[in-house]
Each structure stands twice: as structure tokens, then as C-alpha cells.
Amino acid sequence: MTKPLEGIKIIDFTHVQAGPACTQLLAWFGANVIKVERPGSGDVTRNQLRDIPDADALYFTMLNSNKKSLTLDTKKAEGKEVLEKLIRESDVLVENFGPGALDRMGFSWERLNELNPKMIVASVKGFSDGHHYDDLKVYENVAQCAGGAASTTGFWDGPPTISAAALGDSNTGMHLAIGILTALLGRDKTGKGQKVAVSMQDSVLNLCRVKLRDQQRLERVGYLEEYPQYPHGEFSDVVPRGGNAGGGGQPGWVLKCKGWETDPNAYIYFTIQGHAWEPICKALGKPEWIDDPAYKTAEARQPHIFEIFKTIEAWLADKTKFEAVDILRKFDIPCAPVLTMKELANDPSLRASGTIVEVPHKKRGSYLTVGSPIKFSDMKPHVTASPLLGEHTDEVLVGLGYSQQEIFNLREIKAV
Ligand code: COA
């Protein structure tokens, strides 16, 4: 099957998570992604959190599938020469080094554009160019704090909280992938490459836009009716942390199910969607609430929403999270069990759809990873193992026209 990005050559000058998540996605969709790594060590995640001695860590294998690995010391003149050849025949270069690292290496945007005016140069940084923090190196949690996620996540009586979802890293990589694909379409029209830059702060903030909505509402009316602080608690002049409250116009909460005393994940998320009020009352055996003025409208329910959640928890007390959802789904109530990583790893539906995939690896045996969350009618992305360090160095160099003797010489001086 021909994949849409076949024929697109990408220099993957990325490391850790944000950049690799982007290029992995493009590799799944058919791009020829060549990961350029420092000889001897490579991407730092090859060694981080190892579970098998001498085998690449899952941190690396789960973010670098379907790629090739070329080792190259791009600080040596010979390494730069190889990189320049690669640049001349590539469509995209993706990087997420610390601020200024690419310039210090001698590959500024101007130089790259001179070497290959058709190439798209895509960068992830912590903060956007010109921002007063644009000199900072940034990791995931720093971005979650800088992008507004931390101040609005968690409970009001606890500290700002980090999400387990990689809002700073993988999310920024997904934004960058959209930018690259857009620039490739643009190049079809103009024949020119361009620089695509995404900051982690901006990407987190983009996902927190409803909180900026709430800040403006708060400033206008002084309260936020869907937050647990309403109507009994106090609001300050900034959007508070709302615990597990539903983010939009649908009140919701995480509710205890049978076994919660011993199982920390025996919970469901329950949403009281306005038009589902009647089925909710029927499911709970509370038909009298349907027309009761104290319950009938969302506005009437809000002041005693936690009393309603308590009633639902009483109903849930003798049902597991799975039993509860199986009943509630019949009433068209938006809800889900709180699923653990173990449950997700073994979920037959996720296995069947290719969202959880088992990948054979030369050194590790097979490992589980998250496959493409994007499904196509004409293409099923196939996940292959991440490359060993330098696995494709010879192949790439031969493709660039180097002879075996020249490759040997580059090895002797540790440039590859
Ligand atoms: N050959 C020779 N040198 C290489 C090389 C290669 N193949 N690949 C990288 N290097 C060098 C770089 O040129 C740089 O050298 P310099 O600082 O002397 O100029 C150095 O390796 C490391 O760069 P840096 O990216 O700053 O690494 P770090 O480990 O200090 O910082 C981050 C890591 C993630 C904090 C930083 O890269 C960063 O802020 N990136 C942007 C934001 C980001 O993507 N963060 C999320 C990561 S998930």
C-alpha cells in the first residue's frame, strides 16, 4: 500500500520526547525519517529508565519506531559535510535542541535555507522566539506550568498539579507535525521551504484555551457556575483549580464504585448532560426528580450538585466500574470507567484497532507501544521497531555517494 508521505525525506535531529513524537508520526505515515544521533551515545532516552540492561529503553523505543538511525558528530568538520549533503536532498529537518544549539553548530535558518531553499525547517523550543524566556531550556512539566495547565489542574486546597498526559512534549510534537504538513502543502504551491516553529508554552496554552475563556467570564461576572466553588465557596480574580469538575457546560465528577476502598481506580466519570437528565433519573431509580423544580434544570441542580453525586455514588456502591458503565450506556449517559494502564494494555478493542501494538525488537524481544491514534480508510499505519544506534549509518552514507573506504575513514576519526 502506498503511504501518503512516501518520498518525503526527513532529517530527524530530535531527542527526548517532543521532537521524536512528531517525526515518529510522520514515519508511520510513510516519510523516510533519518534520525541523526551523536556517535557512541545517541538520543539520551536510549539509556533513560532502562528495564533491560544493554537494550534500548522503552522511553526510546516507544518514540522512535519506523525510523532509521545515522550516527554523526555534527560538531566535526567531516560530520558537518555529511549533514550538508543530507540537507541538500531532504524535504524537512526537524530539531528540538536547546535555544541556539543549531546556530552554534553552524546551521542557522539562513544557512539551511541557503543550502536547500525548498527544505522545511521545523523546531520545538520551550518558548517562542522573542519571548522574554526564550533562552530557557524546557522539559514537560516546566511547559505545563508556563502554559497555564498546572495552575488550573488539581484541587483548590492543594498545590498546582501536573497532568500525566504529555501536554508539553508529545502535544507540542503533534502541533509541529501539523505545521510541517501545512508547510509541505504550501511548498507545493510556492516551491519554497519555510521555518516552522512551535513552542511548548504555546502548545499547552492552546489546549488550555477554555481556561482563558473562564478567566474572561470570571472577570466579567465574578463567578463560574460550573466550578465546585459555586455557589458556596469564594472566587478570587484568577481561574481556580476545579478538581474533577466537567470543563464545559456539562457537570461531571469522578464517582466511587464497588471496591473503591481497596482499589484506587474503582471509579467512573459521570457526566450530567442536560438532555440526559430524564434517563439519568430513570437509571438511578429516581423518577420523581424528573419534574421536581429543584432538579429539573441544570441551573436548579447546580447548587446541590454534590448531593446529587452522592446519590449516584450510593447507586454505584454495589456495582463495579464496568457493570455501572454497562447499565448507564443503555441510557445514553456519557460516562467511562477510570482505566488503568494495565487495563488499557490488555484492552481487546485497542489491540484490534492498532492503538496498542506489540512490536518485535532485535534486542528487547517484543514491546508494547501506542500505535497511530489517527485511522484512515485507505491506510493502516504499520509500526516497526525503533532502530539500534547507528543501524543505518552505512546505508545512508552509501545513498549519499560515500565509498566504503570513505565510510571507514569517517569511522576512524569517530565522525560517524
Ligand atoms: N553531534 C554533535 N553534537 C550534537 C549532536 C551531534 N549529533 N546532537 C546534539 N549535539 C549537541 C548540540 O549541538 C548541543 O551542543 P551545545 O550546547 O554545545 O551547542 C548539545 O548537543 C546539547 O544540546 P541541548 O539540546 O541543549 O541538550 P540538553 O540535554 O542540555 O537539553 C533539552 C535538553 C530538552 C532541555 C533542550 O534540548 C531543550 O530545551 N529543547 C527544546 C525544548 C524541548 O524540546 N524540550 C522537550 C524535550 S522532550
Distance between the termini: 34 Å
How would you sum up the major sheet?
6 strands, parallel
**Structural class estimated from helices and strands:** alpha/beta
Bound small molecules, by name, code or SMILES, are: coenzyme A
Report on the architecture of this protein:
This protein is an alpha/beta fold. The protein is 35% helix and 13% strand. It contains 17 helices and eleven strands. The chain binds coenzyme A (COA). The site of coenzyme A has 24 residues, from α1, β2, α4 and β5.
Summarize this, please?
With 416 residues, the chain is an alpha/beta fold. Helices cover 35% and strands 13% of the residues.
List keywords for this structure.
single chain; 416 residues; alpha/beta; six-stranded parallel beta sheet; three-stranded antiparallel beta sheet; 17 helices; 11 strands; binds coenzyme A
How is the topology of this model organized?
Elements: E1 9-13, H1 18-28, E2 32-37, H2 58-61, E3 68-71, H3 77-88, E4 92-95, H4 101-104, H5 109-115, E5 120-125, H6 140-146, H7 170-190, E6 195-199, H8 200-207, H9 209-221, E7 252-256, E8 267-271, H10 277-284, H11 298-301, H12 305-316, H13 321-328, E9 335-337, H14 341-345, H15 348-353, E10 356-361, E11 365-370, H16 393-399, H17 404-412
Helix pairs in contact: 1-7, 6-8
